[in-house]
Amino acid sequence: MKTYFSGFRCYRCGTEQAGAFGGYVCPACGGNLEARYAWPRGAPPRWWLDESRTDVFRYRPLLPVSRLELASPLRVGPTPLYPVPRLGAVAGLRNLHLKDDGQNPSASFKDRAGAVALLRAREIGARVVAGASTGNAGSSMACLAASVGVPCAIFVPEKAPAAKIAQLLVFGATVLAVQGSYDDAFDLCLAVCARRGWFNRNTGHNPFTREGKKTAAFEIFEQLGGIPDWVVVPTGDGNILSGLWKGFCDLREAGLADRRPRMLCAQSDRSDAIARTVAKVPAAVRPMPDWTGVAIEPVRATTLADSISVDVPRDGLAAVRAVVESGGAAVAVPDAEILAAIPEMARNAGVFPEPAAACAWAALKRAAQRGLVKPAESVVCLCTGNGLKDVAHAREAVGAPIPVANTLAAALAATEGM
Ligand SMILES: Cc1ncc(COP(=O)(O)O)c(C=O)c1O
Ligand SMILES: [Zn+2]
Questions:
Q1: pTM (2 decimals)?
Q2: How do residues 284-315 score in pLDDT, each as one tens digit?
Q3: Which ligand 1 atom sits nearest the alpha carbon of residue 235?
Q4: Distance of CA 240 to the CA centre of its chain
Q5: Distance from C-alpha of 73 to C-alpha of 415, rounded to nearest angstrom
């Protein structure tokens, strides 16, 4: 099958590489690479859809892969897009949708990246797939690799939540629990992959993860029948944010959509490197500063939302560009608001988010309060991970169950007035 993939362009310095380029990052400056396409002109209206597929590969003509017979048989995407009027009303928003990516095979958004990265790895004949992860990217890779019998090695910080470590082990990955942070795991994984010649799916570093993540933009476009005013993305490394933005840019470049949304980057104020950088990009040079001069200053991340706890955002520049070029905003919220957002989403929408996913809603509320997002604007808020991945923090946000003796009288007394 044909792919329109034509090569790569560096996010930092703009240097281009041919499609056959075998590296991961820009040889000129070390920046992350963006996949580029030569879109067809005058093609029939539904050229961009592979109607034989019911998963992310429905958008195969917009992806940099072609040998679908090598794809995992697990169904990644489409995920539901729910109208959530009661949740919206909490922040005075009249047109809010929640996209529940916790419904993917390994229960997080990361399956989109994993599906495309794994297919790329198999297309180039990789023997082992590896990656560093706060937990979800790894459990996703382990899950998908298991589905096709490819050996997988995952580097996680030793403090990753128990459920995510359990997922990795259950799927049979070689799990290296690194005595250090996610950032340490990331660097160690890079070094080991270079020595062993493994395929490295590290977020941001590998341009194919972003290509998988952009499929969420295509789904939103189809599900809404158009482009929303805002898309809210919980952000650590910045790869989900840059992926969504890439998807919307592709839709416009390919002549399929005539507008793009504004991107709202949601962070914890205890892991806010991208929000800090966005604040520093001077308004005078927006929307097109010289990106070579924009440096992301690392922070010392301490947020309880493990999936977005990042010192050095590995796709930071692409994420900052997404916010600035979309005319969007970055909002950092305290961890207390992230915790409170978990039951608020669950009780008003019936969707249980892990802490990182709840950060999107917490930040959207603040953005609405500040008047950044207006009541009548259409908003899609991403729920990037299922709440069962971190029940310990969810329990901190809710009360205890009612202890009750095993008698009818006691149960009736406990439910008086209901
Ligand atoms: C559930 C969840 N939400 C948000 C993120 C943030 O994505 P990124 O690191 O690409 O910004 C992640 C990344 O691990 C995640 O697992
Ligand atoms: Zn470069």
A1: 0.97
A2: 666 666 788 888 989 999 999 999 999 999 99
A3: 11
A4: 3
A5: 47
Place of tokens 């005058």: 42
Q: By residue range, what is the domain housing residue 98?
A: 81-105+209-396
Q: Which tens digit of pLDDT belongs to each residue from 227-271?
A: 999 999 999 999 999 999 999 999 999 999 999 999 999 999 999
Q: How many domains does the chain have?
A: 1
- In three-state secondary structure terms, 101 is helix
Residue 136 CA: nearest ligand 1 atom is 16
Residues with CB under 6 A from ligand 1: 108-110, 134, 136-137, 203, 234-241, 307-308, 354, 356-357, 384-385
DSSP 8-class letter at 376: T
CA of 23 to the centre of ligand 2 (A): 13
Buried/exposed 105-133: b ≥16 CB within 10 Å, e otherwise: bbbbbbbbbbbbbbbbbbeeebebbbbbb
Choice from 32, 99, 100, 110 to test ligand 1 binding pocket (greatest atom count within 8 A of CB): 110
Does residue 33 fall inside a structural domain?
A: no
**CA-to-CA distance for 222 and 220, rounded, in angstroms?**
5
Q: Write the CATH number for 389.
A: 3.40.50.1100
| 272 within domain boundaries | yes
Residue 66 structure tokens? 């072609």
As a whole number of angstroms, the distance between CA 300 and CA 101 comes to 28
What the block records as the tokens of 135 is: 């937990």
| 60's tokens | 């195969």
